[in-house]
Amino acid sequence: MTQLEYARRGVITEKMKIAAQSEGVAPEFIRDGIAAGTIVICHNIKHLNGTPLPVGTGLRTKINANIGSSSDDTDMQKELEKARVAVKYGADAIMDLSTGGPVDEIRRAVVAETNACIGSVPLYQAALDAVRVKKKAIVDMTVDDIFAGIIKHAEDGVDFITVHCGVTRSTVERMKNEGRIMDVVSRGGAFTIEWMAYNNQDNPLFEHFDKLLEITKEYDMTLSLGDGFRPGCLADATDRAQIHELILLGELTQRAQAAGVQVMIEGPGHVPLQQIQANILLQKRLCHGAPFYVLGPLVTDIAPGYDHITCAIGGAIAAAAGADFLCYVTPSEHLRLPDVQDVRDGVIASRIAAHAGDIAKGVKGAMNKDIQMAKCRKKLDWEGQYSLALDPERARTLRESSPVSDHGACTMCGEFCAYKVMDDAMARQAAS
Amino acid sequence: MTQLEYARRGVITEKMKIAAQSEGVAPEFIRDGIAAGTIVICHNIKHLNGTPLPVGTGLRTKINANIGSSSDDTDMQKELEKARVAVKYGADAIMDLSTGGPVDEIRRAVVAETNACIGSVPLYQAALDAVRVKKKAIVDMTVDDIFAGIIKHAEDGVDFITVHCGVTRSTVERMKNEGRIMDVVSRGGAFTIEWMAYNNQDNPLFEHFDKLLEITKEYDMTLSLGDGFRPGCLADATDRAQIHELILLGELTQRAQAAGVQVMIEGPGHVPLQQIQANILLQKRLCHGAPFYVLGPLVTDIAPGYDHITCAIGGAIAAAAGADFLCYVTPSEHLRLPDVQDVRDGVIASRIAAHAGDIAKGVKGAMNKDIQMAKCRKKLDWEGQYSLALDPERARTLRESSPVSDHGACTMCGEFCAYKVMDDAMARQAAS
């Protein structure tokens, strides 16, 4: 039985207890959320070294780091180092999106490397197998190839899979009529559209959705219903292709939940700041409260090299508005495959966004560390500040790079540190 | 006559025309905004090499970079390099907050170095002169010293000055009754409070506000009414000390405007995300629409080393809600005096925030570059992308650090680039 089926019968499982403890909530809260479809626990029963990851309403906002090789950069050791760094700096989940080199070995090594929750896009597997193993083109994938890829990932212990089931003839037609600047920027979406055009058939993951449910149910994998029409630029955001796909994903959510399969929904991409709240509201309403897993959103298109920041802005607003799970973006987005430093920068930026969002939406205890940090700042307790920092090493490195004189403050204000001046003033007032 | 006095008489000045052209609005719009107090043009009549900077409702959100020496780091050349880098990467204004070394020489050199708008906090001058020239303590400043510092800055061509006029006995009392964690973190606020406690007098800049108006009017300097009670941590935000000070600043705004002096208001610091909109609304209402110059806001306390990101999140939300002018924060905030790289990172982060906010609040033409960027992305036109990027050098460096094979995309997706796959799919559909 899946966690959803247990929850519906009123059973509190071991995974629900672990999730409840990690969140500081009652196990009943987790169980009831799962039963209602507003919480999922991402954990494949085959992922023996994995930590069950609860995602959804009322819980801490989670963050995911995408890693993975490409045809231009196939170094497995670099990807494993990215996985370690992502987890070290606080990623809750890692998606292995490898499309170059020994992708099966990379995926298995990534699963083995950490205890993090693991996601993937199995369609890449089928596309690669068609191109590399069968020496054909992406469009030559068969429906069996696509499902074989999914089973392979399930067997390897992947906890959640992105499937672009809402990319259908009707949504493609809507997109073409609308006239987008960037069309489709999702790789899975693009592969599907090319396949449909060549084979003159609708999307097999939509057509054979029940088969997909059977497979995922067997492993209790969480279905992450992907947004093939996620906007690739601000001008394309919140258009009819995106929203029509979301309606379809909401309908598929109901079918999956009825079959006992846990579901979350993927969303945004590039979205102007003033449209983010509406995007969250639409997803929550159209998908009946299913957890929302959001890429970015990036609030401008003109900051290549700094898209961890454009993503942190959008992600914080999205989390505050109810997004449950943020996918990071690194400084190298749109420019190159990220390196290890990019992964660290991307993870920290997303943690900032998730944390700011958690404070805003009132997640229990979210402000505790901020309050402790403020107290350490006031006392000029530097070790205390480092220990509370999201990245203690970087905080220490920056301060220690700029030697202070004997005032105990930092070199920003030197002897005129406002904290010290205020201490003097308050002592003077108290004495007078 | 000041720009405000001209505007009230219906006159469109040369500076208003320059401002209108740089904003792409009608000169009448600038004139009427100045007359209404919702727009200021920051420009001291003595700042012969300076560019008049329009700030306010309906205009592009501006950004400021703080630079300046401290008692631990007095290198003038480094500060001049920061000024150049700040302007190169898009700062509209530079505040010289030097409190160490040859501060008069630094200020004059900073004014001469670029054409940017210049701000300062003249109280630091008086405090330093008391400590260093008179060999006394901050508390030994006389009222004349304080005004002498203001005149010195005015004579040097400073375009706007921060004055903490709202730090009074009544606001200090309110803060003490409330019980803050961080008390006062503004240096000008702390100096003032220590002075008041020692001298048993109220704030001279509040008591002698008319004298302040006389001086600023003579140079048409813009008064930037400082927030001595700006919250230093999330827990202290939007409390009665902060809001009471804002009420006082609103009253002083009316007095200044009645005297023909241009005014803007300074605000935030550390503010939880969900309180930012309310802070902007309160300022706009309590200060009758005067332009709002906002530090940060920083949306969490626990990210030292990354406060340019916590600031960009808050700044974008503030700008979207109506803030007119953002003060950057660098990665070194809370840890050390920023270096030159910090200035670049801080300026770019604030530009991202301001730009995202401008798109959200509908500033005319704000989306143009985003649309052009999207078109260049779709075409894989890399030179076009670099030329549109906020930081072209960094975009180029990242991409070129990761050599691509002959597919023309980038190493992120390699041969499986979604743009290319989609082009194939659309061509296939068009042909069929």
UniProtKB/TrEMBL annotation, chains A, B:
Pathway: Cofactor biosynthesis; thiamine diphosphate biosynthesis. One of its GO terms (molecular function) is phosphomethylpyrimidine synthase activity. One of its GO terms (biological process) is thiamine biosynthetic process. InterPro entries: ThiC (IPR037509), ThiC/Bza_core_dom (IPR038521), ThiC/BzaA/B (IPR002817). Binds 1 [4Fe-4S] cluster per subunit. The cluster is coordinated with 3 cysteines and an exchangeable S-adenosyl-L-methionine. One of its GO terms (cellular component) is cytosol. Substrate binds at N66, M95, Y124, H164, S186, R187, G188, D227, G228, F229, R230, E266, Y293. [4Fe-4S] cluster binds at C410, C413, C417. The keyword Kinase does not apply. Its cofactor is [4Fe-4S] cluster. Pfam families: ThiC_Rad_SAM (PF01964). The keyword Signal does not apply. Signal peptide: none annotated. NCBIfam families: PRK13352.1, thiC. Homodimer. PANTHER family: PHOSPHOMETHYLPYRIMIDINE SYNTHASE, CHLOROPLASTIC (PTHR30557:SF1), THIAMINE BIOSYNTHESIS PROTEIN THIC (PTHR30557). Belongs to the ThiC family. 5-hydroxybenzimidazole synthase subfamily. HAMAP family: ThiC. This is Phosphomethylpyrimidine synthase. It comes from Pelobacter propionicus (strain DSM 2379 / NBRC 103807 / OttBd1). The gene is thiC.
